[in-house]
Amino acid sequence: MIEAVKVSKEYRMGAVTLQVLKDVSLVIKPGDFVAITGPSGAGKSTLLHLLAGLDTPTKGDVRWEGASVSRLSDAKRARFRNRKVGIVFQFYHLMPELSAVENVMLPGLIGGQARRQVKERAAACLSQVGLKARQRHRPRELSGGEQQRVAIARALVNEPAVLFADEPTGNLDSKTGEGIIELLTALPTRHGTGLVLVTHDERLAGKAKYVITLQDGRKVSG
Ligand SMILES: Nc1ncnc2c1ncn2[C@@H]1O[C@H](COP(=O)(O)OP(=O)(O)OP(=O)(O)O)[C@@H](O)[C@H]1O
Ligand SMILES: [Mg+2]
To answer: Which residues have CB atoms below 5 A from the ion given as ligand 2?
Structure first.
């Protein structure tokens, strides 16, 4: 279970303090499918990163199974993320020097699994997102939508308890998007994977158990 308790995030920009999130509280139970929506700049990516333990709040607390994420050391947080969480970034963050399959393998190798096993699993994940024939391509040899799908495969390779994804269908045509929506929305029922998605895609948000709407850093519904 992941919980945000009155979470605020501020960025100091010289003399000005930017209030990016204000007092946001929410609970994500195991296997929940939650969609986060709201206008550009509302704080969606910031909230997703806090829930995923990539960053810590200025005020309030993010708790995983009751334990405060802010109090974990960076190393412990990284280990927890590697084991429990899959993250698809809004701008993918693939490693440019690595091929598609090597990118997908990375979280498995970091987690200390055997190379051969990780490679098999990575290949299976790439097939799942329709990229079986693109395994050896580097990110710059892939289209935006293909890079997005590599990022999804990488997020799934360690069979996370929760998948966080920032606009996972943002760069996909409607047919490819349909396939990815099917793959993602099947995760909670098929594997009990929690799903937390930032999305403007109504087909996707419509399938969520609940939708959280942010506006100017505040939760206005959900
Ligand atoms: N590291 C940072 N330093 C300063 N300001 C930041 C930082 N990261 C984000 N912001 C600001 O916080 C606000 C929220 O950003 P965020 O990326 O969470 O928005 P978003 O809802 O994901 O928008 P989009 O739909 O465009 O992706 C923005 O106004 C942004 O400029
Ligand atoms: Mg964003």
So the answer is: 45, 90
